[in-house]
Amino acid sequence: MRVIVQYNTKQFRCESKALLFCASLEQSTHLVKPYPPMHLYFCHAVRRDFLLLPFGKWDLHAQAKVRLARAQKLKSMKHLLLIGIFYASCTWAVVQAQDQTFSQFYTQPQFLNPALVGSIQTSFRLAASYRDQWRGLVPKSFQTYATSLDLRWDLGLSGKAHQDAVAVGMFFYTDRVPTLDYVATQIVLSGAFHKSLDARNTQYLSLGIQGGIQQRNISYEDLTFQDQFNGTDGYTLSTSEDLPANNYAFSDFSVGLNYSMSQHSGLALYVGAAIHHITQPEVSFYVLGGDPGITYPSSKLYRKYTAHASMNLPLAERLDIVPRVLVARQGPHYEAAAGGSLRFGLSQFAPVALHLGAWAHVVGDVQTTATTNAMIWLVGMEYNNVLVGLSYDAWINALGTTRGPGVIELSISYLGEYENETVLCPKF
C-alpha cells in the first residue's frame, strides 16, 4: 500500500518535515485528544488504539491532504483508519513519543521495573512475548516481539540469615508498523541488588538499574509526494522533498525500587516503582538525521513514572487469587490497569495449574477524563517450570460496548530449577 502526501509547497514545506515525526507517534500509547486546528478528530489511546470519528473537510492552515494512491476513492473504514493514523502521525509534531505496552505486564518484569530482575525463586528465568494488534483493520497488523533473560545469585551460604542476592538481565524487543515499514528495536542490560530485611529471608528490598540502546528506522519506498505526479497516469517522478536519514539510535536509562514479602504459606506482597527514560532522549528523525544547518522542532521521549502492586492470597488448598494494579504516567498521558487472576491447582502431586484472569485498562491525559478503553482477559497454563499465557484485549467504545478486533498477546516463560519455597515474583 502506498501513501500520498499533498501539500501547499511554501506554507507546508517546513511542516512536511514532521513526516518523519510519525516515528515518534507510532510508539504513542496514552493520548485521547481532538486537535482544534483541524476538522479531523481521532482517538489515540494505549496500545496505538485509534478511533476515527466523523469529520468534514481537512482544512489545516497548511491545507494538507492525505489519500491512498492505491484507491482513488475511500471505500472502507479501513482506508479511513489508515489515513487517520498516517495523517495524525506525520503532521502533528508536537505530540511526543510514548512507550509500547504489554497486557501481561508481569511476564516481562524487566520492562516493568528493573528492580524485578532476579526477583524469582529460581536461578534464572527466560521469557518471550508476542503481541498482535489491529489484525483485520489494516492490511498488516502491528506486531511486537520481546524476549528476556535474568539470572540470580545468592550471596553467601544457602539458608543463612539475611541472605542477599544480585541479579543481571537482558531484555530485547522489536516493534513493527508494517504499513509504514517502521521498526523500533531495543536491547537493554539490567542489574539489581536484593537486600534481605529479616533473618528468615522472607522480605527483600530491591534496587535495579537499566541501560540500553534503541534503534528506529522507517522506509520511504511506500511514500509518494505530490511533486512525483507525472501529470497523466501516475507518480513516477522523483521527489524534491528533503528527507533525513531513515534510521537513528539513542541510549536510554531507567531505575527502579521494589519491596517483596513472601511467606511459606503462599501469602505474598509486591510493591514497586520505576522511572524510565531518565535522560528524555531525542526521538526525531530530523533532529538526529536532518540538515545540520537547520533547527528542527524537538521531539523528546517523555520520562515515564510507573507504580505497581500485587498480592498472592491463598483461598484454599489449591486455589489462590492474585489481585494487581499498575499505574503509569508519561508526560501528560497516563494509564492504569486493575484486576486479578485465579490460580487453580489441577494436581495434588504435580505443579500443574490453570490461571484465569481479567482486568480493566484505563487511559487518559491531563486535559481529558479518564476512560476504560479495554477489558483484558487471560487464560494461562502452568506445567512444572513452564508457563504459557494467552490474553485478549476487548476494546470498549464510549457507549460501553466492545468494538472491532482486539489485541492478542501470547507469553511463554521458563523458570530454572527451584532453590527455595518462597515466591518473590508473580507468575502472571
Query: What radius of gyration results from the CA coordinates?
Result: 24 Å
Classify the fold: give the CATH topology of the largest domain: Porin
Number of helical elements: 5
- What proportion of the residues is helical, as a percent range? under 10%
Number of strands: 20
Largest sheet: 14 strands, antiparallel, barrel
Terminal-residue CA separation? 38 Å
CATH homologous superfamily descriptor of the largest domain: Outer membrane protein transport protein (OMPP1/FadL/TodX)
Number of domains: 2
Relative strand content? over 45%
Folded structure, characterized:
This protein has helices at 9-12, 22-26, 77-91, 109-112, 285-289; strands at residues 3-6, 31-32, 42-45, 49-52, 65-68, 124-133, 142-154, 165-177, 182-196, 203-217, 223-225, 247-262, 268-276, 304-316, 319-330, 333-345, 352-365, 371-383, 386-395, 407-415. The longest helix has 15 residues, at 77-91. β9 (182-196) and β10 (203-217) form a beta hairpin. It is mainly beta and 428 residues long. The two termini are 38 Å apart. It is globular and about 80 Å long. The strands form three sheets. Strands 6-7-8-9-10-12-13-14-15-16-17-18-19-20 form a 14-stranded antiparallel beta barrel. It has a three-stranded mixed sheet with strand order 5-1-11, with helices on one face. It has a three-stranded antiparallel sheet with strand order 2-3-4, covered by helices on one side.
List keywords for this structure.
mainly beta, three-stranded mixed β-sheet, 428 residues, 14-stranded antiparallel barrel, disordered N terminus, Porin, 5 helices
